[in-house]
Design goal:
The chain is of the alpha+beta class and 602 residues long. It has five domains: 3-179, P-loop containing nucleotide triphosphate hydrolases (Rossmann fold, 3-Layer(aba) Sandwich), CATH 3.40.50; 192-276, Elongation Factor Tu (Ef-tu), domain 3 (Beta Barrel), CATH 2.40.30.10; 295-366, Elongation Factor G (Translational Gtpase), domain 3 (Alpha-Beta Plaits, 2-Layer Sandwich); 372-479, Alpha-Beta Plaits (2-Layer Sandwich); 504-601, Alpha-Beta Plaits (2-Layer Sandwich), CATH 3.30.70. Helix 12 runs antiparallel to helix 14 (587-601).
């Protein structure tokens, strides 16, 4: 089709502003999916996506629409809404010419609305604002329109819709055609195509979702990956309607799928540029970068016999979601497991849930930690540390740097005190405050990522009664006074309970962990010491008393020396048991202490 009658667009929004519901109505109105086949959140095929009401994976669908006597093709590239998947959003936006920015009329602009609008602006997209949920009694369309103009500086007239009721859907489709630009590619030029996502099929191998910028991609053509130089033949190309529908080829401006027979998804880099082997390009399409994990945690099976099953599950899941990485880890306390790197806390939560649900595993996940940079006295080169167990000895460290993020929070003014106190407790550094209206404000702070990965989002929702929204992006590393806090049980360090904390918080965290473990660990036949240690210094201690059998109960009268003899014998036995004994920590204790870590930082 003539590229002038193609529109490639995305829908971007804050979580729960109605993005997936609007996509459903567009598919229904264009008869891409018949009403009898419709279900809610049709683009969200994963059970977890439906349950949580969020989009996790980018997807695409091709719609046909007749407007003013002309046939148009509308390619909707659906994107995740959560901050953890910002890179996935940016790739999807790079394959579009325009975007619909959905804003909830009852909530107004939220933090991720601003972040996604900025992403769209950065890649040069034309943005059409859509105000959703206009049918609700609490909707304030005028105030929301004013925020779009004043805060986002988008001067387009918003399209008022109710995605749930189907109001304003035709007007939205017309706005897509009238206001969004057509692709400008040339089919005669050498092939250049952007990979914006990939999936894995056990029968067909890796299936790539691509946007063709220039040229034509046909079955049988030999293509080349720009970043790796790997060459493969094209086995099949087609459109997503939303099912895979084979086609003779994809031309400039088209969005579709590509099958090459590649069996290892790790050979494909999402965001890479595809070109024809016979006519190679000198420059890749802009926007490619490696997705780097920022949060790490250990994952261990509760039942040690499930380790092979965990290994197989990680291999299969990594074929679908290559943005997390994993490598084997051995803990003295928890046995064999894996250390996983995630894009953020939500990403970690989703991977854990999928492992437990889809592969029927029971898992322990250690407290999440971030990547620190450490410089030793003996070696000036910076070392990257992603695991507390690898942290250098206290006396060897010259400098420690931890990652910081710029945190943006939008909240009602009445919750200002609670939110600012929370940020202060988490070592936030003030950047700025802006009042968006008489009732709403925006605060910006620099915050250590390590303070944010443990329970910050839940605490923010709690102190703001659920009304605050947040967004963040990395700003680099800053020097900090961090220490490794170790927990010793019966003089033995427990590696799974080690963590990196700020020096000012170490005593409180160590004391709380010792107190909690004292409650949870069973009493032994000997006295057990629970200690928190930094470097070589014990900063907190709790003692579990020994079980005591009444050995003199059988003595009726008689000389006191006989009783003393029995008590001395018992004392010697306990002393020997203390020297030779070991303490077994039950799984409940580990889980409770990991939860305590969240509470102590809250």
């Amino acid at each position: 089709m003539d590229p002038a009658r193609i529109r490639n667009f995305s829908i971007i929004a804050h979580i729960d502003h109605g993005k997936s519901t609007l996509a459903d109505r567009l598919l229904e109105t264009t008869h891409t999916i018949e009403r009898r086949d419709m279900q809610e959140q049709v683009m969200d095929s994963m059970e977890l996506e439906r349950e949580r009401g969020i989009t996790i994976k980018a997807k695409a669908v091709r719609m046909h629409y007749k407007y003013e006597g002309q046939d148009y093709i509308l390619n909707l590239i659906d994107t995740p809404g959560h901050v953890d998947f910002t890179y996935e959003v940016s790739r999807a936006l790079a394959s579009c010419e325009g975007a619909l920015l959905v804003v909830d009329a009852t909530q107004g602009i939220q933090a991720q609305t601003m972040a996604n609008a900025q992403l769209a602006h950065d890649v040069g997209l034309k943005v059409v604002p859509v105000i959703n949920k206009v049918d609700l009694p609490s909707a304030d369309v005028d105030a929301t329109t004013e925020q779009i103009f004043d805060v986002l500086h988008i001067l387009e007239d918003p399209v008022p819709v109710s995605a749930k009721q189907g109001i304003g859907i035709e007007e939205t489709l017309k706005a897509i055609i009238d206001r969004l630009p057509a692709p400008t590619g040339d089919a005669a030029k050498p092939l250049s195509a952007l990979i914006f996502d990939s999936t894995y099929s056990s029968f067909r191998g890796v299936v790539l979702l691509v946007r063709v910028v220039d040229g034509v991609m046909k079955k049988g053509m030999k293509i080349k990956f720009f970043s790796t130089g790997m060459e493969v033949p094209v086995d099949e190309v087609g459109y997503l309607t939303p099912k895979q529908t084979p086609a003779p080829g994809l031309a400039a401006g088209d969005v579709g799928y590509l099958v090459t027979g590649i069996k290892d998804i790790h050979q494909v880099r999402v965001g890479d540029t595809l070109m024809e082997s016979a006519r190679p390009l000198t420059q890749p399409l802009p926007g490619y970068k490696e997705a780097k994990p920022v949060v790490f945690a250990g994952v261990f099976p509760i039942n040690a016999a499930d380790y092979p099953a965990l290994k197989a599950a990680l291999e299969k899941l990594n074929l679908e979601d290559s943005s997390f990485n994993y490598f084997p880890e051995n803990s003295e306390a928890l046995g064999f497991g894996y250390r996983l790197g995630f894009l953020g806390l939500l990403h970690m939560d989703i991977v854990k849930e999928r492992l437990e649900r889809e592969f029927d595993l029971s898992l322990i996940v250690t407290a999440p930690n971030v990547v620190y940079r450490v410089q030793n006295f003996s070696d000036p080169a910076w070392k990257v540390v992603d695991n507390p167990a690898k942290f250098p000895a206290y006396g060897d460290i010259k400098l420690i740097e931890e990652p910081y993020v710029l945190l943006t929070i939008i909240l009602p003014i009445e919750y200002q005190e609670g939110v600012l106190n929370l940020i202060k407790d988490r070592r936030g550094e003030h950047v700025g405050i802006e009042y968006l209206s008489a009732t709403r404000m925006m605060v910006k702070y620099n915050l250590p990522l390590g303070e944010m990965v443990v329970n910050f989002y839940d605490r923010l929702k709690s102190v703001s009664k659920g009304y605050a929204s947040m967004d963040y992006h990395p700003i680099g590393y800053k020097q900090s006074d961090m220490v490794k806090l170790e927990i010793l049980i019966h003089a033995e360090p427990v590696d799974a309970l080690s963590q990196i904390v700020h020096k000012d918080k170490a005593y409180n965290v160590g004391k709380l962990m010792c107190e909690k473990l004292k409650e949870l660990i069973d009493r032994q036949n000997f006295e057990v010491a629970i200690q928190a240690r930094i470097g070589g210094k014990i900063i907190a201690r709790e003692t579990i008393g020994a079980k005591r059998k009444d050995v003199i109960a059988k003595c009726y009268g008689g000389d006191i020396t006989r009783k003393r003899k029995l008590l001395e014998k018992q004392k010697e036995g306990k002393k020997k048991a203390k020297m030779l004994g070991s303490v077994e920590i039950n799984q409940e204790a580990f889980l409770a202490v990991l939860r305590l870590d969240e509470e102590s930082k809250g």
